[in-house]
Amino acid sequence: MAKTLFIVRHGEAKQKEPGEKDQDRMLVAEGLRQSSHLGAYLYKKNADISAIICSAARRAQQTAEQICDQLNFDLSKITYHGDLYEASVRILLDKVADFNNDWSEVIIVGHNPVVSYFVEYLTGHHFDGMEAGSVVKIACNVDNWLEISQDSSSFEYYATPRDY
Hints:
alpha/beta, six-stranded mixed beta sheet, 30% helix
């Protein structure tokens, strides 16, 4: 059974306030709209999401929650990971390798620049940087998440808030 990754960059967030931790920044109204519309877009594309893996940063959490609302996905099934906040391509690859093989379609919600680097690494598709509230679909011709590689991954599409 082939696998599918949806790589999501969180929606537009407010600027950091003096003394505020970057991880605590929230989405602005436009970021909430972007995330909700992204969820509706995935719903219309018949995404059958098995799991959502998300950075523990508040803006990423809010993005995942908005997507869940549109997909009728159980919020309690979101898995939050602190190490996705300042992740590397290696950390993302390790996360994917640990996915349950019963999962066929997984959303990863994270941050630039690593989400863009991860897509480039797996698919060879170049970005100047994924926009806030955008998604990339990657088709993975593997039966086991451990087998994911550059050779088994292909770029399907990149959608930005202008597309939904």
